C-alpha cells in the first residue's frame, strides 16, 4: 500500500457483524462486567466463610478454627500459584475473553464441589480452585479494562470496577446468614451459583477491543470523544500517564501498534485489503519476551517494585484484623456473631464509594497525590480503633479507616498501568498478575500475623492497630519517594529551591 487510497475499510461479507457491537465493546459495559466479576468474587468468598465452620462440625472434625484458617490459606495459595501462568498466557496469546470465561466456569464448579464435599481435603481443593478463578478476575479483568479505555481515564474506570470489592462483602455477609437458617448449608452456595451464572452470561456478551477494531469500532475513541465534549474536564498534568494520540474511525491506537509492531507509531494509510479488513481480530504485534525477562524488567523498575510492596502491605493491613475483630468486639462489648456481622456491614458501606472517588481523583491529580492523602488520613482512625470508650466510636473509626485504606487500590492499579507503558514487552496482564501475587501474599500473611498478635500479646488488639499505623507510614514513604515519572519528593524539593 502506498497510502494514497481513500477507500474505507468494511468487513467482508462472509461473516456477519456481531449484534450490539458498539455497546458490547464499550468502555462502560466492559467496566461494568469486570466490576460485576469483582463483586461476584468477593460475594462468593464472603458467602461461604461464615458457614464452613458449622459444616466441619457437622462432618465430625475437631479444631474447627484452625481448619478454617487453612481453608482461607488454600484460597490464597490457589490465587498466588495460578497467577503467573494466567498472566503469561493471556499476554502471550493476546486473549482476555477465553480465560475470563473459563475462570467463571471454574468458580461455579468450585462452589458445587465445596457444597457437596464429604471430606476436608475436597474442601481444600475446592478453595484452591476458587482462588484460581479469583486470579482470573484480578489479572485478566483489570487488563481488559486497560485494553479498552483511554489512558487518561484508566484511574476512574478501574476505581468504578473495584467498587465491587466492598459491594460483594456487603451482600455476602448478611445473605449468608439469612439463607443458612432456613435452607441449611446448601442455601448460600445455591445463591452463589445463581449469581455466578448471571455473571458468566454477562461475560459472554463482552467483545474485546481488538475484535471491535476489525469492524471499524474503537471503544477507546468513543469514550475519548465524549470526554473531550466536557469543557469542565481539567487536563491531567500530574498523573504521569501519557495521553494517547487522537483516534479516528479508521485507525485506532491498537491498530497502529498492530501495523507497526511498536506502541505509538502511526501509519498514514487506512486499512483496506481483505486480509486487513475482515472480521478477524486485529492483533497487536508486540515484542514477545520470556516470563523470566518480564520478572527481571519488573524487579528492575523502582516504580513497579514500590507498587508491589505497597500492595503487599495493603493485603496485610486489610486482613490482619479479620481474625481478631469478632473476638475483640465480643470481649469488650459482648457482641454475638450476628451483631459482629452488622458492624462489618456498617464499616464496609463507605468503602463502596472510596474506590470510585479515588479513581476519579487519580485521573486529575495523579497516583502519588491520592495515595499519600489516603494513607495519611487513615492514620488517626487506626489510633482511635485502640480506644474502648464506645461501640459507636469504634464503628465510625473502623468505617473511615477502611474508607481511606480502600481508596489506595485505584491509584495503585493506575500506577501499574503507567509503569507498563515504560517497559517494552511487558503487558497489562503481566503487571496485574504481579499485583495479584503481591496481594495474595499479603492476604495470606495478614490473618496469620493478626491472629498470632492477638493470641500471644496482652494488648493484642493494640498491637494490630499499631502494626497498621506502621505499615501505612512505610507505604506513604514508598509512594512519596518512588511513584510517578517525577516522584513527589523531587517535586517538593524543586519547589522549595524556587525563590
From TrEMBL:
Pfam families: MFS_1
GO cellular component annotations of the record: membrane
Protein name: MFS general substrate transporter
Chief location: membrane
Residue ranges of domain Major facilitator superfamily (MFS) profile in the record: 30-487
Homology family: Belongs to the major facilitator superfamily. Vesicular transporter family.
Subcellular location: Membrane
Region Disordered: start-end pairs: 224-275
Stretches that traverse the bilayer: 26-48, 68-89, 101-122, 128-146, 158-176, 188-206, 304-321, 341-361, 368-387, 393-414, 426-449, 461-483
GO molecular function, one term: transmembrane transporter activity
Top-level taxonomy: Eukaryota, Fungi, Dikarya, Basidiomycota, Agaricomycotina
Keywords: Membrane, Transmembrane, Transmembrane helix, Transport
InterPro entries: MFS, MFS_dom, MFS_trans_sf, MFS_Vesicular_Transporter, Tet-R_TetA/multi-R_MdtG-like
Membrane topology: Multi-pass membrane protein
Amino acid at each position: 500500500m502506498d497510502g494514497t487510497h481513500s477507500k474505507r475499510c468494511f468487513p467482508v461479507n462472509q461473516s456477519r457483524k456481531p449484534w450490539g457491537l458498539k455497546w458490547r465493546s464499550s468502555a462502560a459495559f466492559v467496566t461494568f462486567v469486570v466490576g460485576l466479576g469483582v463483586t461476584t468474587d468477593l460475594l462468593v468468598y464472603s458467602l461461604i466463610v461464615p458457614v464452613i465452620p458449622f459444616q466441619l462440625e457437622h462432618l465430625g472434625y475437631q479444631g474447627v478454627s484452625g481448619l478454617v484458617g487453612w481453608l482461607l490459606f488454600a484460597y490464597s495459595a490457589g490465587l498466588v500459584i495460578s497467577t503467573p501462568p494466567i498472566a503469561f498466557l493471556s499476554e502471550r496469546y493476546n486473549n482476555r475473553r477465553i480465560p475470563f470465561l473459563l475462570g467463571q466456569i471454574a468458580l461455579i464448579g468450585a462452589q458445587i464441589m465445596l457444597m457437596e464435599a464429604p471430606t476436608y481435603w475436597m474442601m481444600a481443593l475446592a478453595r484452591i480452585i476458587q482462588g484460581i478463578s479469583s486470579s482470573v478476575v484480578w489479572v485478566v479483568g483489570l487488563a481488559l479494562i486497560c485494553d479498552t479505555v483511554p489512558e487518561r481515564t484508566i484511574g476512574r474506570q478501574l476505581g468504578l470496577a473495584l467498587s465491587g470489592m466492598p459491594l460483594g462483602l456487603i451482600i455476602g455477609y448478611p445473605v449468608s446468614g439469612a439463607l443458612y437458617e432456613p435452607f441449611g448449608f446448601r442455601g448460600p452456595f445455591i445463591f452463589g451459583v445463581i449469581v455466578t451464572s448471571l455473571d458468566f452470561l454477562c461475560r459472554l456478551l463482552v467483545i474485546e477491543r481488538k475484535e471491535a477494531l476489525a469492524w471499524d469500532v474503537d471503544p477507546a475513541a468513543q469514550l475519548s470523544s465524549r470526554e473531550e465534549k466536557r469543557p469542565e474536564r481539567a487536563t491531567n498534568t500530574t498523573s504521569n500517564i501519557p495521553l494517547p494520540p487522537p483516534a479516528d474511525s479508521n485507525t485506532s491506537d491498537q491498530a497502529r501498534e498492530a501495523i507497526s509492531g511498536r506502541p505509538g507509531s502511526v501509519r498514514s494509510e487506512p486499512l483496506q485489503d481483505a486480509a486487513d479488513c475482515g472480521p478477524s481480530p486485529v492483533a497487536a504485534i508486540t515484542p514477545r519476551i520470556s516470563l523470566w525477562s518480564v520478572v527481571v524488567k519488573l524487579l528492575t523498575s523502582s516504580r513497579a517494585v514500590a507498587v508491589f510492596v505497597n500492595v503487599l502491605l495493603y493485603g496485610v493491613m486489610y486482613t490482619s484484623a479479620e481474625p481478631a475483630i469478632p473476638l475483640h468486639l465480643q470481649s469488650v462489648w459482648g457482641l454475638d456473631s450476628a451483631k459482629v456481622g452488622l458492624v462489618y456491614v456498617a464499616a464496609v458501606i463507605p468503602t463502596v464509594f472510596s474506590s470510585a472517588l479515588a479513581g476519579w481523583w487519580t485521573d486529575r491529580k495523579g497516583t502519588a497525590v491520592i495515595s499519600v492523602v489516603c494513607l495519611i488520613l487513615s492514620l488517626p482512625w487506626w489510633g482511635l480503633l485502640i480506644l474502648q470508650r464506645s461501640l459507636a466510636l469504634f464503628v465510625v473509626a473502623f468505617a473511615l479507616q477502611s474508607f481511606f485504606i480502600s481508596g489506595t487500590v485505584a491509584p495503585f492499579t493506575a500506577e501499574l498501568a503507567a509503569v507498563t507503558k515504560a517497559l517494552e514487552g511487558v503487558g497489562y496482564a503481566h503487571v496485574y498478575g504481579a499485583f495479584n501475587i503481591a496481594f495474595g501474599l499479603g492476604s495470606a500473611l495478614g490473618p496469620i500475623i493478626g491472629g498470632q498478635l492477638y493470641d500471644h500479646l496482652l494488648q493484642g488488639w493494640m498491637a494490630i492497630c499499631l502494626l497498621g499505623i506502621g505499615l501505612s507510614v512505610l507505604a506513604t514513604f514508598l509512594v512519596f519517594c518512588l511513584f510517578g515519572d517525577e516522584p513527589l519528593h523531587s517535586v517538593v524539593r524543586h519547589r522549595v529551591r524556587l525563590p
